[in-house]
Backbone:
């Protein structure tokens, strides 16, 4: 069992969720509430990581974040580190790859919030910020929770993009999925099986817990609305 790779994967998942979920709440809310020209194209762009092969996404990220790119050159010049083959680059890549897993559940959750409830809250004198924090967020919490678990689990098992952008640097970019691949290449099937089992058990447990909590929270919100 490669504990260093497991810890790096958990760390990567935590950073990705920390930065992505707040952004996904704002984007999902905007897509659910507002109509604007090009909305369909924006929604399609958000879903692109779901249909493109990881190697294609990894290639474009490698080009877009490399030292010769504007973003990569800026990071190296002002922060003194490159984004390719670096943990920071993996965080950026994981955020981009997991946008659909975060935005979609939250957008669907916001679409279920009745307009009448927001209007009633506004009539009661609540500010937009208070409506967002006290009315909307509690009602869309199941969607936020689903997005959080999906993103965390997906980052934990991500392989193609991580390998192309980060390589296989122990303690820096070698995640548990890459450790599994290395173990199989070395015919160490015991270690590969153990690490695979850990990911499998985590995925099943996380999804079961999310489904249960979402059902309870959804039922509570429905009872509150009635």
Residues:
């Amino acid at each position: 069992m490669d504990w260093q790779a497991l810890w790096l994967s958990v760390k990567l998942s935590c950073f990705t969720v920390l930065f992505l979920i707040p952004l996904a709440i704002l984007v999902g809310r905007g897509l659910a509430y507002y109509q604007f020209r090009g909305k369909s194209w924006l929604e399609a762009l958000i879903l692109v990581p779901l249909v493109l092969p990881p190697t294609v996404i990894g290639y474009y990220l490698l080009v877009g974040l490399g030292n010769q790119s504007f973003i990569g050159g800026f990071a190296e010049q002002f922060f003194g580190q490159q984004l390719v083959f670096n943990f920071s680059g993996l965080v950026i890549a994981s955020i981009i790859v997991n946008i659909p897993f975060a935005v979609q559940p939250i957008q669907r959750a916001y679409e279920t919030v009745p307009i009448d409830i927001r209007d009633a809250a506004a009539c009661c004198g609540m500010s937009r910020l208070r409506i967002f924090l006290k009315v909307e967020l509690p009602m869309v919490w199941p969607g936020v929770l689903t997005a959080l678990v999906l993103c965390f689990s997906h980052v934990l098992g991500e392989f193609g993009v991580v390998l192309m952008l980060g390589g296989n640097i122990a303690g820096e970019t070698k995640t548990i999925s890459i450790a599994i691949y290395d173990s199989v290449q070395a015919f160490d099937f015991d270690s590969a099986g153990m690490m695979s089992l850990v990911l499998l058990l985590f995925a099943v447990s996380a999804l079961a817990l999310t489904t249960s909590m979402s059902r309870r929270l959804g039922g509570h919100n429905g009872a509150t609305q009635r």
